[in-house]
Structures are given as C-alpha cells and as structure tokens.
Amino acid sequence: MIIRIFQVVTRPGKEEEFGKFFHETAIPLMRGTDGIVSVLPGAPRPDSPREFSFVMVWKDLAALKQFVGDDYQSPHIDPAEAELVESRTIKHYDLVES
Asked: What are the chain's domains?
C-alpha cells in the first residue's frame, strides 16, 4: 500500500473559502474514490492557520495512477481551488504493516 501526504497552504485571506471547498468537495471526493483504503483530512491549527492536509492510504500504485495519472508525484489540484492555493506539496511512502 502507498501512503500519500498532500499538503496545501492557502493564499492569505483565502482560508475560509478554501475550508469550505475542503469540507464540502475535497473530503467527500477523496472518501468516495476507488482504490483508497483510508483518508485522514487535516484542518488548520492556530499555529498554522493556512495549512490543510490529506493523509491517504492507497491500495497500490496502480490505483493511485488510475486516479491522478502517470504523473502521480506532482501535486494536482482541482481548477476550482487553484486561485485559493499559494503552494502545495506531495510525498509518497510505502506503508509499513505491523
């Protein structure tokens, strides 16, 4: 399984608007995506008020690529959120099962 950590920093003043998109669109979309085993959305904290994240566990690399394409190492965003986002990062790891 693949762990995918996606982090977003919003543009200043866009936190509330992005938060609405995050809760109403992004979280339901990711939770309903084939190939995802687990979705852990992360909302901002007082010390990082513009940062949002997703920790996702994907069944395998093929499932991840089916969702985002072959360029899975690039942090894709929905066009609706592009004007709200200052930066984004993506990291992948192999899940260590105990």
From this structure: 2-94 (3.30.70.100)
* C-alpha of 52 from chain center: 8
Cβ atoms 52, 40 nearer than 8 A: no
Measured distance CA(33)–CA(81) in Å, rounded: 19
What would the pLDDT profile of 5-63 be if each residue is shown by its tens digit?
999 999 999 999 999 999 999 999 999 999 999 999 999 999 999 999 999 999 999 99
Question: H/E element holding 40?
Answer: strand 36-42
Residue environment code for 7-41, b if the CB has 16+ CB neighbours within 10 A, otherwise e: bbbbeeebbeebeebbeeebeeebeebebbeebeb
**84/19 Cα distance (integer angstroms):** 10
Residue 57 · residue 93 · CB < 8 Å:
no
CA-CA distance, 25 to 62, in Å (whole number)?
24
